[in-house]
Design goal:
The complex is a heterodimer of chains A (487) and B (348). By secondary structure, chain A is mainly alpha-helical. Chain A has 19 helices and six strands. In chain A, strands 1-2 form a two-stranded antiparallel sheet. In chain A, strands 3-4 form a two-stranded antiparallel sheet. Chain A is globular. In chain B, α6 crosses α8, α8 packs across α10 and α11 runs antiparallel to α14. The longest helix of chain B has 36 residues. Chain B starts with a helix and ends in a 7-residue tail after the last helix. Classes of the chains: A mainly alpha (487), B mainly alpha (348).
Chain lengths: 487, 348
């Protein structure tokens, strides 16, 4: 097998892409300079009611920018399409594009469906009116689909943990020395320090982030909302106490907290299990109060509903916190939990402690945001109306205040997933929590950085992956903020 | 105002007490003590040996008592060997038990002895803080002016070409954590694979002899992550000020645009970024830990990693006191500064 080059037989596109990108960069610079130097647009109204813009130079620059941008995008699409068709003969880029085929298809289907029905989809549909939001959503969904299909073993070319002799630190596109049947013939993005495939590890790393980050953020939001709403609504002693506790956690440098919490020694003492038992009960309280405050006037409907929902939630809660029949199982003592035949899933101690500490770090910030919003909204007229109507405080908090605070909360949710991704990367970077051979991006960056002055390829793909995912989440949040402000 | 500061200082002390107790509790859990014993003695210690080591050091007392000793409100533990020599926290090497004081905690100005660096904690923290202080000074010098300029340029005309480009840049920098941007910078500017080799990939030499070549990349890496956030806040505040009534009046009077920005808008637009910059300090501490590890610059953040990795209790406590102090003092400064900058707010 020949080693692959980056673009293979579609190399003729490279000068074109360079030209298009160069033109785009040039026109952005000219555009910026022009916006400072040139006078502002003079709009004149013609007798027939149309508008004429006097500044033709500006229009010219804008057209140049638009066309060079379109050309760059078209060329990028051409790389991908040609890559999907030609596969490895289009070089590494082609082969990667072909491996990502399920992701491209899902993205196309998702975008086509969303744009077709965007008027019926509320805020989500409005996202497709904002170019920034669309780009951000595309980046995010790219990694979500990559994570899901990667977990189904569709995209990966090799086992992320398998070491193939002779592939240590090999450059991207190196063919395998002794090819066996059914093996992919190349390491597309090269081999790392332990002769594992960098490309497959990057794809598998996406799954870890896609699993943990949104879920941890959601738990942090549940905790923050359940505590922040009463703190803002009641005020007084409760508020003082909760705010003090939140500030206490916020005053802790995040890394120090991680170093104290996420160690094998702490896992052995069972502290994370206690924290999990406390933190994970908040979603149950939230659900219970949410439903009870809504339906307490109809006990016939409420009681079965609450029993059903809380029963399932409690079962999930108990299976979440108990492992192998115990909630806490240390050398000196143990607390019984759900018996193993009822236990739905087991979370390894390393993952649990990562999850718990990420929730723990995020929830005080959410608490402060929710508290601020509740303080602001509780002075509104509709809250006074509900109070006059005789609604209970929890109904007002959860069914009057919370829905009206959803705009900023959704935006913050997106930003916070990005921040959680960064935190997970930080944990991996310091080798905390996750097992050392795990393919998550932080650990991979940490391993790759040691040889960075000689070999770039092990560290750069996970770094760029993390960068693009967080950038996508930030752009998505920006698009959502813009669209929700338009209401 | 005086009462306000007094109350804040009180809360600060309470927070510091709670946090140090938390650190104390976590570092004094038995598995952590066992790790400490094994790193100090040897890794093949039997359980009895670990026990006796901990007994000698006074680690087996209850946590509140040990915390009291560390604070200096309780007399510190002394251990008498079989041959009659007395050992204890207060008894420094080369001194006899009679000469040493009974109380030695932070109230007496004694921070303890670092088990990793084999030095007194106060010297370790002092030296490391000086190194990190130098790093932070240059970070601030790079970050604050460029973030303010970026934000003001972007916020001058909302929606203009400059605004769009600079905002995109700001979003990109906030989406790039230090360990990503640092790795990318090292890859581009220092590696032999790209071949530019403009800078040095480690900042170890910068501890004695900081030059542009070995110090710029760490500074840039920390500054970039914080810059985007400050720039976005400045932009938001600037756009808000630029739509205010008095700016419109000034424009209608015929004041030139540069004059409006420099003389009318700027002062009011800089109130919000001031708080943001102050509150950015705790975040910078994170960046410092990552960057010092990445560039092997042996400052405060590096010491934190070493202390936490080896469960060096005294050093970890000192480090958490310092960092909590930094966080709370910057909060206090931002509150007080906000009142001075914005005369509409008065604290009764």
């Amino acid at each position: 097998m020949e080693p692959l080059t980056w673009t293979g037989s579609i190399a003729f596109l490279n000068p074109l892409l360079a030209l298009a990108l160069g033109l785009m960069a040039l026109s952005i610079v000219v555009w910026m300079l022009a916006s400072i130097v040139l006078p502002e647009d003079q709009m004149t109204v013609n007798p027939d009611g149309t508008l004429t813009s006097s500044s033709s130079v500006r229009n010219l620059i804008q057209a140049a920018l638009r066309y060079s941008f379109l050309a760059s995008v078209a060329l990028a699409v051409a790389y991908i399409v040609l890559g999907i068709v030609m596969g490895t003969s289009a070089g590494i880029i082609g082969a990667i594009a072909q491996q990502f085929l399920p992701v491209w298809l899902s993205l196309i289907i998702l975008y086509a469906m969303s744009i077709a029905f965007k008027r019926k989809l509320g805020l989500y549909g409005k996202l497709f009116d904002s170019p920034i939001g669309m780009i951000g959503f595309g980046l995010v969904m790219f990694w979500v689909f990559t994570g899901i299909f990667g977990a189904l073993d569709l995209i990966v070319t090799h086992d992320p943990l398998a070491q193939i002799s002779g592939m240590k630190n090999k450059v991207p596109g190196t063919p395998l020395p002794n090819l066996e049947d059914g093996q992919y013939a190349w390491y597309l993005l090269g081999g790392d320090n332990l002769a594992r495939d960098v490309f497959s590890r990057m794809v598998k790393g996406a799954w870890i982030v896609v699993q943990i980050a949104p879920l941890a953020t959601m738990f942090a939001f549940m905790v923050g909302i359940t505590l922040g709403l009463p703190a803002g609504y009641y005020g007084g002693r409760l508020d003082t106490l909760l705010s003090f506790l939140a500030n206490l956690i916020l005053a802790f440098p995040v890394i120090l907290l991680f170093y104290l919490l996420v160690t094998p020694e702490i896992v052995a003492t069972g502290v994370p299990n206690y924290m999990a038992a406390v933190l994970f009960i908040f979603p149950i309280i939230f659900l219970g109060v949410l439903l009870n405050s809504r339906y307490y006037t109809r006990p016939n409907f409420r009681t079965p509903l609450l029993i059903g929902v809380l029963g399932v939630a409690l079962w999930l809660y108990l299976s979440l916190i108990s492992t192998g029949g115990y909630i806490i199982n240390t050398d000196s003592y143990s607390i019984w939990g759900l018996p193993t035949y009822l236990d739905l899933f087991n979370i390894p101690g390393g993952i649990l402690v990562v999850f718990v500490s990420v929730v723990f770090v995020n929830s005080p910030t959410v608490f402060r945001i929710v508290r601020g919003l509740a303080l602001d909204i509780k002075t509104r007229d509709y809250v006074a109306a509900a109070q006059t109507r005789g609604e209970g405080p929890w109904y007002i908090m959860l069914w009057e205040i919370l829905p009206n605070a959803r705009g900023p909360l959704i935006v913050d949710f997106c930003l916070r997933i990005g921040y959680t991704t960064i935190l997970l990367g930080t944990l991996g970077f310091f080798g905390l929590g996750l097992p050392p051979e795990s393919p998550d991006w932080g650990s991979t960056i940490n391993e790759g950085r040691k040889l960075l002055s000689i070999y770039l390829h092990p560290a750069l793909p996970p770094a760029l992956a993390l960068l693009s995912l967080v950038l996508g989440l930030n752009l998505l949040a920006d698009g959502l903020r813009e669209e929700s402000l338009k209401d | 105002m005086g009462l306000f500061i007094l109350r804040r200082v009180g809360i600060m002390l309470l927070t510091a007490l709670c946090l140090t107790f938390l650190v104390f509790f976590l570092t004094n859990l038995y598995p952590n003590l066992e790790k400490l014993a094994k790193t100090q003695g040897n890794f093949r210690m039997s359980d009895e040996q670990v026990e006796s080591f901990l007994e000698k050091g006074g680690y087996l007392q209850s946590t509140p008592i040990k915390y009291g000793e560390w604070l200096g409100v309780l007399p510190s533990y002394r251990h008498t060997d079989e041959d009659g020599t007395v050992q204890g926290r207060c008894i420094l090497p080369g001194k006899s038990a009679e000469e040493s004081p009974n109380f030695c905690g932070i109230l007496q100005g004694y921070w303890g002895y670092s088990t990793v660096f084999k030095e007194e904690v106060s010297t370790v923290v002092g030296n490391r803080l000086a190194l990190t202080g130098r790093l932070m000074f240059w970070v601030m010098l790079l970050m604050v002016p460029s973030a303010l300029i970026l934000g003001i340029l972007a916020g001058m005309k909302e929606g203009s070409a400059t605004d769009r480009t600079l905002s995109t840049f700001a979003i990109t920098t906030t989406a790039t954590p230090e360990y990503v941007s640092g790795v990318i910078f090292i890859a581009i500017f220092t590696s032999s694979a790209v071949g530019l080799k403009w800078f040095k990939g480690t900042a170890t030499q910068a501890m004695e002899n900081p030059t542009f070549e070995n110090f710029f990349l760490p500074v840039l890496t920390i500054a970039l992550y914080g810059m985007g956030y400050i720039a976005r806040m400045t932009r938001a505040s600037m756009t808000e000020v630029m739509t205010a009534q008095y700016i419109r009046t000034a424009r209608l009077k015929g004041v030139s645009f540069p004059n409006i920005v420099m003389k009318h808008a700027l002062r009011n637009a800089l109130i919000a970024p001031f708080t943001v910059i102050m509150l950015q300090f705790p975040w910078l501490l994170n960046g410092v830990v990552i960057v010092e590890t990445l560039f092997n610059y042996k400052g405060f953040g590096w010491a934190l990693v070493q202390a936490a990795g080896n469960n060096d209790i005294q050093l970890l406590l000192a480090i958490s006191v310092v960092s909590v102090f930094v966080v709370l003092v910057t909060q206090l400064i931002s509150d007080i500064g906000y009142v001075y900058l914005n005369p509409r707010i008065r604290i009764s």
